[in-house]
Amino acid sequence: MMYRVITGILKARTAVHVGSGEGNELADLLLRRDTEGNILIPGTAIAGALRSMLTRLAPRLGSDVCVELLPPKKREERDEDEQKGCTCSICRLFGDVEPSDETPARGGEEKEGYSAASRLLVFNACLIDDGSAETLVRDGVGINRASGAAARATGAKFDMETLPAGAEFALRMELREPRYATEEEIEADQRLLAVALAEWKEGRAHLGGDVARGLGAFKLEEVEYKEHDLDDPDGLMTFLREPRPWEEAEDVEDWLKKRLDGAIQDTVEEDNLPADVAALPVTLGWAEWTFTLQAEGPFLTNDATSSGMSGFDHAPLLATGGDWTNPVLPGSSLRGVLRSHAERIARTLVTHQAIEKHSPQERKKRARHFRGHCPACDPLAQRRKPEEESTALESCDSLLRYEKVISENEEIVPEQLCPACRLFGSTRRGSRLIVEDAPYCGEELPVYKMLDFLAVDRFTGGGAEGFKFDALALWKPTFEARISLENPEDWELGWLTLVLRDLAEGWLRVGFGASKGFGKVTVTGGTLRQGRLDPARATSGQSSIFVVDEISFDNPALLEEQHLWVAAFNKHVSWERPEGMHLPADNYFGVVDDVYGGEAQ
Q1: Which residues 6+ apart lie within 8 Å of 591 measured at CB?
Q2: What is the pTM of this model?
């Protein structure tokens, strides 16, 4: 019997929030701590992230499909024997998702009960505190899609405690060897785990809360796999006596590389997947945009902590408290701009479709067309009670709940959400699009300018008493942005292409004070990386299970592909809402005619 342990360091690339679900007078959401007050990442969070990744990857690695990937109706249609548990490789490694007390054979030997505990023990990852990891409180606020201002009516204001980028956590996992496990199963378990750890080594690990809004990006470093022979009496005594036996275990060289090479050989091509498996949310690939954002003038991301420390009413977000050499563009700010602009593009196209299909006299038909095809709801437009009057652009979540399309606890399928909620996420479905915090990357130290503002009294034309404020703004800063999308479809790539094009050309404003001239940015350079599971092109010794293609933004070949993606988006934007999901009202057709004194065209 072998004692198998994997150790490493999880290093945060962005700020991190692994919450406790509790708050106090300091913040609404606090970091997770143990009883002695030490910050940690729970082993459950790490195991959950690994399991989620591998559940989607396993069918591409020749493993059975986990029941967790099946849509609700497919789960209900399974026969009685199939509902007694899941015996896929993921459930074998992480534990059964559908416990049962049946006693079937597994691994050539019967065991007590059908359910098996996890073979992978993941311990809490404790913060490696050298005294420099000071926590910060970060503000968050929802944005009203119509006004562009803070969504005060919905109360979408909160703050959270975070750790800065660069924080390190000690990772430790142990692989158990049950008595009924075969050598083939043990080897398969190691290959699966090696695939996930290789991805984390490439910087594609995300843990904690607000991942899609910029937090919780990690890179795994200093990975070591060690073994200790417990069949040897001396080895067993050493293992039992040592308080930290993983430090005495023997390091196995090239463990990750060898297991990864084995997994690459088992990869199943996308075209060879059975039709029923290909229809499930299995991993197909990913896309990642990395580019430089150059501000054209004053730039400000307002942060309450920096404001309090500096004495200014408004001051930029910093990577570390008091370190004015490292300002940060929060991923939530950039993500909000991208989503808002994407929604405008999609709604504009559907508006034109409605106008082209129906004459100016057919206003009601135009309105019906828009309400039945609108591809972007407003996630903050929600009814609080069933009897409340519905509003234009009502959110998918609200419609699902109050139109009784589906019960609140019932799982949804992607087709029940508008394209905007499918791409950017909603309360019913997490987002596959991650917009990370963008650190300052200028060659010189950042330049700050102190600006004074004074509200004007509309009656006297003079200064309004009590409305004086100031700001400490960055002057023409440069940030390095990173956006990633899992399993991108062509229409999603086309949609993001249109949004990033307008961002690159300086049409969008980012951050605080857009109406005051702040936040104009352009894209000065970047690359698009695409990872694909392609066994025909895979080579021994590659650092990831994916074959990665990289192309710069100014490459003509990328432009040709983008035309195809945009064409796919133009076709998809005419998506029709399912029954019960038509918007109850619109705020354009037949509404603005009297305001503008003529036919709305």
Answers
A1: none
A2: 0.88
